[in-house]
């Protein structure tokens, strides 16, 4: 007796060839709507769904597969005689393969805000068939991804259609419907509840397993939103570890925060230990390295541009664990070839690429906290309020902008010192803002860096004037901070006493 396959897809890529192969392997094709029309036009002997349901498609296509002849054909158990007898009694014929991909809800919400159109692109019959077929994977193959067509045909033709094979597709199917429903729920909450409904769904697609997690005894993997890594992350040498990926993310965010500028950021354990902008990337890297070459050893470097042979030769002078750039030329890759431990990644573009996620979340014991993603707008420094008597020059404002953006992307409490478009000192992740300021200055002194005349940024307000006094003693000339302390007047007074410029952005950028 011929097997039967029910094929109803929105994404019709490869479906004709898939059905042709099914027919060659003894399957009768049942189909619906546009899929049926395409198959018939291409000479595939398909039968329309209403021949099976014995009921016409109705309500403008809202109801066509929600029918016991469909779901009974999928769901009845082939290993129970009572099910087989009842199927025969009711005239229900077995459906042995279901190939369904769902109405394009994501594409719909990206192209229109028309709610009626959006509602009509919520699939009902598709998920029901997918779930039915997945539940009865003992006997039914469920296919939800066009990339699996060849694998399924190979299994059918080469006696690989085992229960274990079908179980794998069952898991994929429930992942598929869960992700689809999650997308709809999240959209509705975004539209009507400001994105914070009673349930919050975080769905990612697996890119790869990492060798281990943060430590060797932990398992780990990388998951992505919207193909960000699949489309913008190419491995040229080595293998990204769990910790590498975290460090890479921090470095890329900072290096790409300045548009098309030739920016280089060096990070260690997710925090910047070097940053600079120059007319060319070789100079930018050279200046970035000066901030803390000790921490840079074994660090991660993000280059907002193309790594050339010249830059590679310069970078190859010390041990760097990871380099990520817009692109890395073949000549540059050859420079690094002899170093076994270095890892090279590129984004396939002339500059680094950010995903610009709209939401952010952090795991806490027993759950997670969820929020709008923080974003430093380009006009925050430009619109900052001058609260001191002295003002910064246009060139000094550029240093303030760099310090402000880097501080906003560095672990709190933090302060960042910038001079001539290069970071010369940074204190981060401290329990005291005073300690952060003093730690940064101590490090700068050890490195032999002159911070006099530099810009200082803090991601949150200074609670006391002591940090301003310490900055003045080090020669800091310009300061930017959010403001908002009950002692702001004392801080302003201190800045005026020292002849410094002081700006309040009125926006705090904590990063815990």
From TrEMBL:
CC terms in the record's Gene Ontology section: cytosol
UniProt KW Transferase keyword: yes
Taxonomy, superkingdom: Bacteria
CDD domains assigned: IMPCH (cd01421)
EC number, UniProt record: 2.1.2.3, 3.5.4.10
Pathway noted in the entry: Purine metabolism; IMP biosynthesis via de novo pathway; IMP from 5-formamido-1-(5-phospho-D-ribosyl)imidazole-4-carboxamide: step 1/1; Purine metabolism; IMP biosynthesis via de novo pathway; 5-formamido-1-(5-phospho-D-ribosyl)imidazole-4-carboxamide from 5-amino-1-(5-phospho-D-ribosyl)imidazole-4-carboxamide (10-formyl THF route): step 1/1
Domain MGS-like: residue ranges: 1-144
One Pfam family named in its UniProt record: MGS
Xref: PROSITE patterns: MGS (PS51855)
Keywords: Hydrolase, Multifunctional enzyme, Purine biosynthesis, Transferase
GO molecular-function term, one example from the UniProt record: phosphoribosylaminoimidazolecarboxamide formyltransferase activity
InterPro entries the UniProt entry points to: AICAR_Tfase_dup_dom_sf, Cytidine_deaminase-like, MGS-like_dom, MGS-like_dom_sf, PurH-like
Catalytic activity: IMP + H2O = 5-formamido-1-(5-phospho-D-ribosyl)imidazole-4-carboxamide; (6R)-10-formyltetrahydrofolate + 5-amino-1-(5-phospho-beta-D-ribosyl)imidazole-4-carboxamide = 5-formamido-1-(5-phospho-D-ribosyl)imidazole-4-carboxamide + (6S)-5,6,7,8-tetrahydrofolate
One BP annotation, GO: 'de novo' IMP biosynthetic process
Entry domain remark: The IMP cyclohydrolase activity resides in the N-terminal region.
Family: Belongs to the PurH family.
Designated name of the protein: Bifunctional purine biosynthesis protein PurH
